[in-house]
Amino acid sequence: MLEISKLVKRYGNDEPVLQELDLVVEGSSVVAIVGASGAGKSTMLRCINRLVEPTSGSIRLNGNELVKLKGAALRRARRKIGMVFQGFNLIDRLSVMENVLAGRLGYVSLYQAITRRYPREDIERAFTLMERVGIAQYANKRADELSGGERQRVGVVRALMQEPEILLADEPTASLDPRTSEQIMILLQSLASELSLPVLINIHNVAQAKTYTERIVGLRHGKMIFDGVPDDFNKEALDAIYGGIEAPDEEITRQPGSSPKQGKQGAAHDQI
Ligand SMILES: Nc1ncnc2c1ncn2[C@@H]1O[C@H](COP(=O)(O)OP(=O)(O)OP(=O)(O)O)[C@@H](O)[C@H]1O
Question: pLDDT tens, 228-239?
Fold first, then answer.
């Protein structure tokens, strides 16, 4: 269970980007975090895995307080938090298998990592997961020889190799075409239930959030202003979250797989 309580993040002397945010995610729920650009979505995810230092507040994962952890304790906690990135964050010149095994770096010794002598069970787990997501046939290919969707699958498997207790996905579909985006969303949804894993997904595509997640959290200026099931995420909620911004109104009704036409927010970010 993830329990975020009164989380504040202030960069320098600027206004806080997260303002006493509270969020509890239980079980294997798939939660979409939506909000306009700058609302604090990435900052929130990055506070959870401590890529960003929270200013104050508490973040507990299965009872363990993550804020204030340092050194070895922080490294141990971090390996339980899988992260999937918009730009995949793969090492292009390495093979798919080597990228996937990088998910074990928090577990193996430095010697094993440098000599790439990963335990047999890690390699077996890597193959099992690669088969599960349909990339086993690319194990020996260089990562940069894969399509965007395949690369994101590598990113997902690398995160799962950590045996995470939670999966964070920061705009995981924003670099992908609409069809491939949907496949990745379906994959994340299925893996959450198969592995009993909570998954938090920052996403600009409201239609996909509504279709492939079971809960939507809407942020505006670092505050949560919507928290509910997709069916309740209506035009009013959309307006409250995107405010005066030219909101992706059409996304709320657009069916997945239809035209990728989007409002400013979606267009600006899904194409990056
Ligand atoms: N390292 C940083 N230093 C200073 N300000 C930052 C830093 N990272 C983010 N910010 C600011 O914090 C605010 C929230 O940024 P964040 O990236 O969390 O928003 P977001 O909702 O994820 O936006 P987007 O959808 O565009 O990715 C923005 O105003 C941003 O400029």
Answer: 999 999 999 999
Extract the tokens encoding 193.
Answer: 């239930």
155 and 44 share a domain? no
Joined tokens for residue 166: 């939670």
186 falls within a domain: no
Q: pTM here? A: 0.88
- What pLDDT does residue 142 have? 97
Domain that holds residue 127: 88-163
Q: What is the CATH number of the domain that holds 268?
A: 3.40.50.300
Residue of 180 and 255 predicted with greater confidence: 180
- Report the C-alpha gap between 61 and 45 in whole angstroms: 13
114: CA distance to ligand 1 center in Å? 35
Ligand 1 centroid to 150 CA: how many Å?
28
What are the percentages of helix, strand and coil residues in the chain, rounded to 5? 40, 20, 40
The token duo for 195 is 């592995």
Per-residue pLDDT reduced to its tens digit, 106-145: 887 777 777 778 889 999 999 999 999 999 999 999 999 9
The domain tally of the chain equals 2
- Best residue among 43, 52, 201 to mutate for probing ligand 1's pocket (most ligand atoms within 8 Å of CB) is 43
Nearest ligand 1 atom to the CA of 265 is 25
